[in-house]
Design brief:
heterodimer; A: mainly alpha; MetI-like fold; 78% helix; B: 360 residues; alpha+beta; Rossmann fold; OB fold (Dihydrolipoamide Acetyltransferase, E2P); 10 helices; 19 strands
Amino acid sequence: MGDIWNGLVQAFKLIIHLDPYVMKITLFTLFVCGIATFFGMLLGIPLGSALAVYRFRGRRLLITLVNAGMGLPPVVVGLFVYLFLKRRGPLGFLNWLYTPTAIIIAEIVLAMPLIAGITLAALQNQNPKIRLQAKSLGAGEVRSIITLLRETRISLIAAVIAGFGAIISEVGAAMMVGGNLTLNSQPYTRTLTTAIVLEVSKGESETAIALGIILLAITVLLVWLMTLLQQGSLLNYPTRIARSLVSRRKKEEAA
Amino acid sequence: MTAFISIEGLRHFYEGRQVLDIDSLAIGEGEILAVVGPNGSGKSTLLRIINLLEKPSSAEITYWNGKKLTGLDRGERKELAGQMAMIFQEPILFKRSVKANISYGLKIRGVARHEVDRRASQMLERLDMSDFASREALTLSGGEAQKVTLGRAMVLEPRLLLMDEPLASLDTPTRKLVRRDIARLVKDMGVTAVYVSHDYQEVLEIADKLAIIFAGKVLQVGKPSEVFSRPASDVVAEFLGAENLLDGEVADCTEGLARVRIQGVELQAPCEMPAGSTVKVLIHPEDILIMMDGPEKSSARNSLPAQITGVSIIGALAKIGLDCGFPLIAYVTLASSEELMLEAGKKITAVIKATSIHVM
């Protein structure tokens, strides 16, 4: 018990003092996962939409692949990205192995099918006439799909939460293609998860616990923000405030 | 009158089955055309084809701007589609406020924001729904929702409004209200419209022209009253819910007036068919007069002694079952039914003008 308690106390000290080592890892993780989630959305939402809306040859196969992709083991994804990026691999000439780019690629591969799969499921649950209605009011092909996506925004945000949650918490792929590097001569590739693994193996449980708390806090905070967005209250705050201001001014004018 | 839209040789196949086979159908400017037929007769497909949402197997449609369906380029297609709006059986609203729903089409067309706001507010006022502006659209009742979809279409000031069974998902009292709103708005704004329904009664008041469609074919087009009183065929008559559609035979025919024999009883009716033809005879129940004390002198050609077989009450009307050698149904107002004390077993005389009998 004493160890855990000590660890917690030390961890809070590290966080409160904005320990540079801890901060750098945290910011780096946010950066990598943010970009990967962004590209995951950029690819996943159109892919999921296309699979939901259009009928074409090979659609079923693609859906199977996407669904399978939703449960990809990160270590295996890491392994494949590694095989492609290693010096003698097909993309070895890019020299991307053990760089942030490599981590981002692996995380996109992990997040994209999750986002596409949830988008697909959500759109298929919608009334197919929504798109017809939008078109009959003058919407073009793309606009009609955007309207449909807007109708599904709750599920879309859930898709993004799932994608982000999956990649910020995984360690296998980030470790394998990133290398957990911090030396000045090399690209920086240490994420919260890879750092925790390292600190524990070094016996530095305070740092590990501090990083663990931060990881948890980031996850909870972001998921909470997205939930607010999803349930509409985040967007409602500004309008509510504006409304109350307007009504107050009216009252004052009346008085 | 040159047609606003004319459809020629429309054939459409779906999964190898022919769903539409229309030689010609025209809609005049400002006209409300009701297309009525049973479910699965191809009505909705017709609307989607006009609306450019579906491509027909073959057809020539000439639109109001003189553009023809075959040979529309992308830009022309978009322009035409932008001048049409459609409302569906179930009110499909978007997950936003009522006002945002009304604004949808205007925003797509790139109308300036204040103009969108002005026109949407104006439309809400016309619909008597200003208080609903900021309501979440998905919380509306069926009738309110359908009014919003109507407003969302009409705010675009379309050249052509297409309505696909707009009342079918509503309950009876709501149906009346929404129908009134549709009629008012469409007529006030002078919009040309096509109204599809499986229920002819729904469109009688609204439609300027009625097309009866069956299994993809247009069987009859005309003013509703014309179609109703002079159906082109027994299929149409039966579909229009004709109560008295009888089999008969022309006994003789002189100068357009025939004696038609129905189960041994003879009726006089206008007819151009030679003696011996088997015919269908249509008598509208409202056109049958019931008299108590034998046939008085009247201009009516047909007076039939009859016995009442049953009386049932439908709203403000009494439906009187008669046996006058063949079964016949008559409608009288509830008040006169009570005054005459009509009841089963009573003997009366049924009087029918020759011109109220339609022989086909």
